[in-house]
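Work Package 3 (structural annotation) set out to generate three-dimensional models for the target panel prioritized at the project kickoff. During this period the team completed the workflow that converts sequence records into discrete structure tokens, so that structures can be stored uniformly alongside our sequence database. As a representative example, we reproduce one entry of 176 residues exactly as it appears in the project archive.
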Amino acid sequence: MRRCSRLVSMISWSLFLLAAMVLSPVFVQPAEAAGPVRGEQAPGFILSDLTGGQYKLPDNGRGKILIFHFWGSTCGYCREEIRILRLLHQENRKDLLPLSINVGETPLVVKKFIDKLEPGYPVLLDSNSAVAKQYGILGIPVTFLVDREGIIRFRIFGEINEKDLRKLLNVMLARK
């Protein structure tokens, strides 16, 4: 009986460690990739869009709620997330500016992917991943919600869904 309980204890401990290893990337961000956190000013940056125009933040986003959506063409969730951001932008055009920031891909790859989606808001190119590093991005997708004053209010690791994103945005939109 003692041997059986020790075996159960070992199995339980092993399952705990396995769960901790699997879930830790979701809950723990490595120190070297910390980037800005909730309540801090969003770091400024300059990136080009697919037409060669430049977006300088915070200047181009003043007075609007910003959504920085870091993504890549190999991301399974990103196609749906871009659709969600397009819809939210259409509904809140004067108050909301989504920016889908492609991480590490060439303009040709991005254009081929994005042309099918027609986002209707800026898609920016971070081909050398400099802004992704500045924001502590290790994997995609990652989404930041930035208020009208340029303060990071939410940071979402992984997939975003429309219902939860709407809840967060409603809180931010209510604060004028």
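Residues 32 and 136 are 8 Å apart (CA to CA).
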